[in-house]
Design brief:
This protein has 9 helices and 7 strands. The chain is of the alpha/beta class. The longest helix has 26 residues.
Length: 284
């Protein structure tokens, strides 16, 4: 009987550090999350049955749709303490409406993030989207773009000093997106046509224009350089290294308004960003 009692006590003592170690391991993962950004982060156009509205449960960042496997759902599997502690602060506008004032929206969303009752331990920032407001001049003012983004990012970092901030690039590679456009019937391609230098399809011909592709790509490259530089100045910020920009887009990944990802596209984005942030999100 005495031997049994000693064995039980030893087993209990051995179990204590193991349990504590498990708790410490789990605690490395965030217990709250928020996303700030464009309509893509709100799942705009994700549901093929309703391509012209947001579907926040389908967001790559904070969605609960199991088909997407969002960053939030992946964290939930590793740290149950995050359950219910997610906030999607991204713009409620449509993708066309948001084009051109993403940084205005970001500044507003930063203010909202600082007011949250449950302070986010992980902040996902998505300010670049495929929909661009393009007049041929102002979109190339990269210095102003970088200054405005940096100011808002600094305010976010200072207001939530214990949070990790992860900034993502524009989703979908240009090469794969161009192939997608070329694979469409001309009638469908013309839905996205226009005369602006950032509209890849010309109107009324329906041709995909190489000069416009180069122009749009130069804008994204310039803006992403500013995001990367601003993030590098914040100790608790990381950039995705262009991971989202390398995603190969297929027809099933884009909505009827093909600037935004479907559930399938959102799932691809979630997978790529999860891989890019794995070490960072664990506190590494």
């Amino acid at each position: 009987m005495r031997r049994l009692l000693i064995a039980a006590v030893l087993a209990a003592l051995v179990g204590v550090p193991l349990a504590s170690a498990s708790t410490r391991h789990t605690a490395k993962y965030p217990s709250s999350i928020a996303v700030l950004g464009t309509p893509t982060a709100a799942g705009w156009g994700a549901d093929p049955a309703h391509p012209f509205r947001e579907t926040r449960e389908g967001s790559w960042a904070t969605g609960t749709n199991p088909a997407v496997r969002s960053i939030y759902s992946r964290l939930l599997a590793l740290n149950p303490a995050i359950k219910g502690h997610y906030a999607n602060l991204s713009s409620g506008e449509s993708a066309p409406e948001a084009a051109g004032h993403e940084l205005d929206d970001f500044a507003v969303e930063v203010h909202k993030a600082l007011q949250l009752r449950v302070k986010p331990q992980l902040l996902l920032v998505q300010v670049i989207d495929r929909a661009m407001k393009c007049d041929g001049t102002t979109e190339r003012n990269f210095a102003d773009y970088g200054s405005r983004f940096s100011n808002a990012l600094q305010a976010l970092a200072q207001g939530l000093p214990n949070a990790r901030i992860f900034v993502i690039s524009q989703w979908g590679s240009f090469a794969s997106y161009v192939n997608y456009l070329k694979g469409l019937d001309v009638s469908k391609r013309l839905k996205n046509a226009g005369k602006l230098p950032c509209q890849l399809v010309a109107s009324p011909s329906g041709q995909v224009m190489p000069s416009r592709i180069a122009y749009a790509k130069s804008i994204v490259t310039g803006e992403e350089a500013q995001l990367r530089a601003a993030c590098a100045k914040v100790a608790n910020c990381r950039y995705d290294g262009g991971g989202a920009q390398r995603i190969a887009v297929t027809a099933g990944d884009v909505s009827e308004f093909p600037y935004t990802p479907t559930f399938q596209g959102q799932a691809k984005l979630a997978a790529v960003e999860w891989k890019a942030m794995t070490g960072f999100v664990k506190g590494g």
